[in-house]
Amino acid sequence: MILDYQLRTTKMTRMSYLMLIVVSLYLIGISVASKDNQISKLNKLIKSRRSENPPHAESWTKQDISNLSPVYTVPQEGSLEADRIDKLPGQPVADFEQYAGYVTVDAEAGRALFYYFAESPQNSSTKPLVLWLNGGPGCSSFGYGAMEELGPFRVNSDGKTLYRNDYAWNSVANVIFLESPAGVGFSYSNRSSDYTTGDKQTAKDSYTFLVNWLNRFPQYKTRDFFITGESYAGHYVPQLASLIVAENKKTNQTVINLKGIAIGNAWIDDTTHYQKNGQLNTSNFTFQGCSPSPPLRLICLSYVTFNSQWFRFLNPTCNYPKSFCSRSFLQIVDNLRCSNIPMA
């Protein structure tokens, strides 16, 4: 009887394993079929939308100087001294000149751009002129660039006083911080429609600003000039540079002595950005004092691959994985233990 019981138990165990295998295969089959069905639906959606354009920024073709409109200019006599800053609120002693004010770029619309300018403490007359543009779009070059990043001052924790920034760029150059486009920071327009603008208008306004600003500060007209920025300035900087090169070819025009551009963390478009995010965050950092970055989670790698191929068709349904991956990127970067990253 004991032997019979053991045989029956063994038979039941084998049947259980067999049933488990069958059920597992069934579930796998359903999963594969479901995945195939999802892929089929996705391909159908893609084919139905092939005619749509991807949500990239405005195309920027080579400038044709014959199509460039005259640049708006106004007399600037007396404006330089009017813009001179004696002292910012809560500012410590400074050994350099600084200016701030508005330059009108469209009188009819009442559109004007605000700037903050910090000259170099030593030999400002021989050092280059640098334009800084924050990105966003919509980030203030004065509030962020000047007061939190590369400007001559930083804000103390009391929110009322300033202290000197040891790594300020004006130690090696004369730096203009431009609030652009209109609606950013202190820049404004009397026409509300100007607050919905595009890259081409932004470049045109920035160029008009520069021409008038150089008339206000004529001592900088022949100075070596560089355009710099970060983030969405990946659009602003090269597009403004392209416009300057085109305008410099015109006769009887203010020639801007453009020597180069520099962009940090340049934003080109979503597809390029997310592909490179994945590449960056699955690589190792080699700075002395930094531990290697851990690999991204599989879901983020899959998202980056999907994103690079089908980004034009994404909709709000995809915002969750997009947000998830962004948080994962930040966790990886924030968790790096870097004690000796070389200063740029």
Automatic annotation (TrEMBL):
SUPFAM superfamilies xref list: alpha/beta-Hydrolases (SSF53474)
One Gene Ontology biological process: proteolysis
Subcellular location: Secreted
Taxonomy, superkingdom: Eukaryota
EC number: 3.4.16.-
Gene Ontology molecular function, alphabetical: serine-type carboxypeptidase activity
UniProt keyword list: Carboxypeptidase, Disulfide bond, Glycoprotein, Hydrolase, Protease, Secreted, Signal
Nucleotide-binding is among the record's keywords: no
Main localization category: secreted
Claim: Zinc-finger is one of the keywords in the record: no
InterPro entries on file: AB_hydrolase_fold (IPR029058), Peptidase_S10 (IPR001563), Ser_caboxypep_ser_AS (IPR018202)
Any one annotated GO CC term: extracellular region
Family note: Belongs to the peptidase S10 family.
PANTHER family (alphabetical): CARBOXYPEPTIDASE, SERINE PROTEASE FAMILY S10 SERINE CARBOXYPEPTIDASE
Protein name: Carboxypeptidase
Organism annotation: Helianthus annuus
Lineage summary: Eukaryota, Viridiplantae, Streptophyta, Embryophyta, Tracheophyta
